[in-house]
Amino acid sequence: MAMDKHHSQLPLAKCLRQHCASEWVFRDVPSDISIVVEGGIFSLHKFPLVSRSGRIRKLVAGHRDSDISKIELLSLPGGPESFELAAKFCYGVNFEITSANVAQLCCVSDYLEMTEEYSKNNLGSRAEEYVEVVVSKNLEMCVEVLKQCENLLPLADELKIVCRCIDAIASKACVEQIASSFSRLEYSSSGRLHMNRQTKCEGDWWIEDLSVLRIDVYQRVITAMKCRGVRPESIAASLVNYAQKELTKKSISKVDGISGSNGHEKVVVETIVSLMPVEKLAVPISFLFGLLRSAVMLDCTVACRLERRIGSQLDIATLDDLLIPSFRSAGDTLFDVDTVHRILVNFSQLEDSDEDMEDVSVFESGSPTNSPSQTALFKVAKLVDNYLAEIAPDANLKLNKFIAIAESLPAHARTIHDGLYRAIDIYLKAHQGLSDPDRMRLCRLIDFQKLTQEAGAHAAQNERLPLQSIVQVLYFEQMRLRNALFCSYPDDDHKPMHQSWRINSGALSAAMSPRDNYASLRRENRELKLELARMRMRLNDLEKDHVCMKKNMEKSNSRRFMNSFTKTIGKLNIFGHSSSRESSSPSKRSQVTDSKLTERT
């Protein structure tokens, strides 16, 4: 249909070109040569053409024996429009070289060999000068020239028009970014220079301009920008803007009934993914999920790369992000559970790799604190519980898939199991045909000891739970009540207090990761060892004092010394009564003193 439309408009275009040519071609001299370009006929004169164009000169000279009156130029870049501009230049007609036609002029002058060899200040040198002096200094002009070059490839690439414009765009964007950064520098109250984060960055105005480029040219521009050091945030913003415009435009074309394949959209998605900055938080998580939806729908090979990247920053995702529609058969689930499960597996593998890379010396260091990965784990656990509650009412959701999502995180990820209990209760309500073994298998996911008082009270009266689960709930509720009572009256009995400490300690240790729990135990062991060492030192000091006193008593045989020693001991009242009245002989007093000192130590 497009070809028929083209042929129907060709005679009209031909008439217009002939009419326009009659305005600037010599009217008093009859035409002696006709130039045919893509069906359009230009009635011109040989002399102005051969004086500027080396190609036409060679063609005319090759037919010197027979007077040539018609030449067809095949595959002329830019078509009849470009040749008309070249012909005007040959006739000395003035026209303006702009960013909209300079790429065509460069290519057609190369095709027609309009170089300095055949005429001074020929079209080729004029067009090249405009590119170097004017276009390369302006980013918008470079983008417009690149847009024109899309239909002139590969000749425009061979003439280095494309690479020069790309280098100019990358350099200009980098300069604009640096200038914008300097404009945001401010002096603080202390006199220090700092960057004002609240001021909007004005150096990324080029993002909108690049969205008009074709995907292959756009890819080369972004690659050059990354090599020049443009900010990852600016690169990511440009990718988001380009993807939204390009994919939305194709979606509207499909709705309007315009025929087209998914091949272009697939190329766009795969190219955008390959251009994303490696920095973790440079690309918004919502955009990553949007690309993932498109990749799954188009069956792109980059879906696995997106799943890994999303898994590395899953803690900042929202529930709406995870609700990916299923694009499979009608009998499948409403949401794509398999893709979410793979994302969770990537997240868990990342956690495992982080723990494996930790050196043992880390556990030996100071007190353990919640690492960012542990905080992220808590956030993801809450997100997963909400996701399970959202997909639980789906009648097509299989039990194995539900359990796989719930078990994708380690046991210490959930400090409280209220969210998981809620999701399981919704699933049991929506799937009442589950067998007793399946219900037991599902309820084994819940640690009823980690339910809050409100959730435990609800579970104790929940008829959808298996009987064994209800018994567990009642048991832990009774233990919680006992511990609460004995904590109020701790002097009555110490055994429940030990039980309470054991249960609470278990909940606390479960709230910590194995790494943090291990470090906490190591710290407690060090403190106990220090206390034991202090007690040994005190015991050694007492033993030394005892030995010295015994030697002094053996050396002295005078009764006066013993009387004074006895009086001194009586005044100190170490044993609660006077020692002089219990013994009359020095040897007996010494034995009593030795025995009591031994008991004391």
TrEMBL record:
Pfam families: BTB, NPH3. Residues 204-480 form the NPH3 domain. Pathway: Protein modification; protein ubiquitination. InterPro entries: BTB/POZ_dom, NPH3/RPT2-like, NPH3_dom, SKP1/BTB/POZ_sf. Residues 581-590 have a biased composition (Low complexity). The keyword Phosphoprotein does not apply. Residues 518-559 form a coiled coil. Gene3D superfamilies: Potassium Channel Kv1.1, Chain A (3.30.710.10). PROSITE patterns: BTB (PS50097), NPH3 (PS51649). Keywords: Coiled coil, Ubl conjugation pathway. Residues 576-601 are annotated as: Disordered. It comes from the Eukaryota. SMART domains: BTB (SM00225). Residues 31-99 form the BTB domain. Belongs to the NPH3 family. PANTHER family: OS12G0117600 PROTEIN. This is Phototropic-responsive NPH3 family protein. It comes from Anisodus tanguticus.
